Amino acid sequence: MPQNDSVAPNGLPIHRIALPGTRTLTALVAFDAGARSERPEENGIAHFLEHLVFKGGETFDHYRKVNETAERMGGVLNAFTSHSMVAFHITVRAESADEALDLLTDFSGRPLLDADELDKERGVVIQEIARYNDQPSALAEMLLDKATFGDHPLGRSVLGPEEHLRTFTRDQVVGFRDRRWAGAKGGAFLVGALDHLPSDERLAELFGRFPDVPEPGPVEDAPAPSVDRVVETRDTNQSHLRLAYRPDLDASDPKVRAALSIYGTLLGGSMGSRLFDEIREQRGLAYSVSASAWSLGDITQLQLSAGLDSTKTLEAYARMREIVQELHDDG
Fold first, then answer.
1. Using CA of residue 180, residue 185, residue 190, residue 191, what is the dihedral sign?
2. Which of 53, 100, 242, 263 could share a disulfide with 111, CB 3.0–4.6 Å?
3. Which CATH architecture fits 3-207?
4. Which CATH superfamily is domain 239-330 in?
């Protein structure tokens, strides 16, 4: 994969990665500005900001202009917020590169953040929170974070609590953005067919639309591994079981991360995996059972998941732990 890098005036690295044979381009820009970087009273603001920028920027100054411009290009436009980052991305035909980058960097790089839109979007995010709280599987994920990380930012919901969404002000939102969206803590990635990219000068101008702010301080170190168990009772037809392991690995090493990903796949990432074969096929304990691995800059985690009949939970819990140990000991 041929790669070429440069840096925008605000310190944002621009990575160009060619993929021979493709006719599309994906552009993604991300910042180290996820829920982990929030102060306690800000919990939920990183995700709220992600929503708000889609309301328009200086050129595409209305949400309809943003949406219709992307759709006229046949583009796929979206964004996400995690504990570690916020990211905005668009995929288009390679010939639409300049127009797509103009759109992406306009609304996300210089958003209007209109105060009236804040009030309307509060209700949208509050309903998103309600939806997640009504889904037992999603709630189980949040409870696992709480059990694993406690009151650390990694233990808090990315969406934040409803009471925060009702009180966030425009000044708070702008203040968070100006504190965390630093070019030195971000990156722009242009991946696919690069033949139609604009000039280096044009790319610098486009990605220079993001804030030119000082590099923020480090996020809070991850806490020591916890052995807490969290149980919440709901009137549902299934129990949703989650287990987490914190391997003592160097999360900064790409080879280690790759090996852990393969380990998670062997354990529960496919229909031929250990967990699927025994928990579902041999024992019939669960319809859904899986394992996955993820890494942040300083920690790694292996997570097991199952949705099953409540009367089978203890049997599944015990056997899933044994399977993890067997793979560790015997390969």
1. negative
2. 53
3. 2-Layer Sandwich (3.30)
4. Metalloenzyme, LuxS/M16 peptidase-like (3.30.830.10)
| pLDDT at res. 2 | 54
- The CB-based long-range contact list for 224-227 (8 Å cut-off, 24+ gap) reads 225/148, 226/147, 226/148, 226/149, 226/150
What residues pair up with 192 in beta bridges, in sequence order? 18, 25
Quickly list H helices, the chain. 45-53, 63-72, 97-109, 115-133, 136-149, 162-165, 170-180, 200-207, 254-268, 274-275, 313-330
Identify the segments of the chain with pLDDT beneath 70: 1-3
User: Helix (H, G, I), strand (E, B), or coil: what is residue 90?
Assistant: strand
User: Which residues, including other chains, have CB under 8 Å from residue 160's CB and lie 6 or more apart?
Assistant: 35, 43, 44, 45, 47, 48, 129
At 70, give phi and psi (nearest 5°): -60, -40
CA distance 219 to 53: 24
**Contact assessment for residue 129 and residue 165, using Cβ atoms and an 8 Å cutoff:** yes
Cα gap 114→103, rounded to integer Å: 18
Query: What is the predicted pLDDT for the residue at 270?
Result: 95
pLDDT of residue 282: 97
- Residue whose entry in the numeric block shows the structure tokens 């980058």: 101
Query: Cα(244)–Cα(145) distance, rounded to whole angstroms?
Result: 9
CB atoms within 10 A of CB 14: 21
Residue 38 is classified by DSSP as: S
What pTM was computed for the model? 0.94
Are the C-beta atoms of residues 238 and 312 closer than 8 Å to each other? no
Cβ atoms of residues 35 and 103 within 8 Å: no
- Residue ranges per domain, the chain? 3-207, 239-330
Q: What single letter denotes the amino acid at residue 95?
A: E
Residue 118 CA to residue 141 CA, distance in Å, equals 28
Domains 3-207 and 239-330 fall in the same CATH topology: yes
